[in-house]
Amino acid sequence: MPVPPRAIAHVRLTVTDIGRSRAFYDDVFGLPVVYEVPDDADETTRAQLAFLYDGVIYALGDSLLGLRPVASDSFDEDRVGLDHVSFSVGSRADLDDAAAVLEHRGTPHGGVKDIGAGYILEFRDPDNIALELFAPKA
pTM of the predicted model, to two decimals? Predict the structure, then answer.
């Protein structure tokens, strides 16, 4: 008998440079941090937060988005594993605003596209991980 999941609990992306990735995700998404190892953490705290691997976990609605700094190679959506991560936004206007944010920070993107069921805006993070914002049609 199958086990029916209700939602995705969390996604953790492996990155090469946590400082660079963190600056990108903080700047583009502005999500609240749920877990991170404080700079002044003692050994007990560091042991309790070892599951972070010196990364960070953000709140994303009812889910979590984590960054883990251990990658030694680069992202390729044509390998087995992750193709891309898509985040939902409320409207087409939100996508237009997001495109302006990306342009302001010099992040290349594919422009807002109509895909029938809604609109998407595609771009990449500093490790070339394919990201997408999706807005349903009203």
Answer: 0.89
Instruction: Identify which of 32, 31, 25, 33 has the alpha carbon closest to the alpha carbon of residue 105.
Output: 25
Q: What CATH number is given to the structural domain containing 117?
A: 3.10.180.10
Number of domains in the chain: 2
**13 falls within a domain:** yes
Residue 42, SS3? coil
Contacts of residue 29, defined as CB under 8 A and 6 or more positions apart, other chains included, come to 58, 87
Cα separation of 3 and 72, whole Å? Answer: 34
> What is the residue range of 104's domain?
83-138
Query: pLDDT, tens digit, for every residue of 39-73?
Result: 999 999 999 999 999 999 999 999 999 999 987 78
Is residue 78 in a domain? no
